[in-house]
Amino acid sequence: MSMAFADQPTRTIAEHIRGFYAGIFAAGIENARVAAGRSIPEAAHLAGMELSQWMALEAGGWLPQTPEQLRAIAGALEMDYDRLASWVMLCWSAWES
Questions:
Q1: 84 band by pLDDT with thresholds 50, 70 and 90
Q2: What is the pLDDT of residue 6?
Q3: Which residues lie below 8 Å from residue 77, measured CB to CB, with a gap of 6+?
Q4: Residues 57 and 44 sit within 8 Å (Cβ to Cβ)
Q5: Which DSSP category does 95 fall into?
Q6: Per-residue model confidence (pLDDT) at position 7
Q7: Closest-CA residue to 66 (of 81, 56, 79, 76)
């Protein structure tokens, strides 16, 4: 049984922290989308994103990198840009390398 654990890749503490905050940000995006009454395809379209990219956003596997991307996401969620930017600040560790 210990062999199964030996084959698992090890993650650094920093990688765990990034994953934790990316997950929090992703959950906030999903909750905001649901509250806005948007489907995933609709939100992706309104933000000018590929469906797969939006799905990765809600899974914590992709994070917006530019203010323009944040503005598009905020618009698709009918959310104030400053509110979304404050989420980024709260979850900043997700973006740290």
A1: very high
A2: 57
A3: 29, 32, 33, 36, 38, 43, 84
A4: no
A5: T
A6: 64
A7: 81
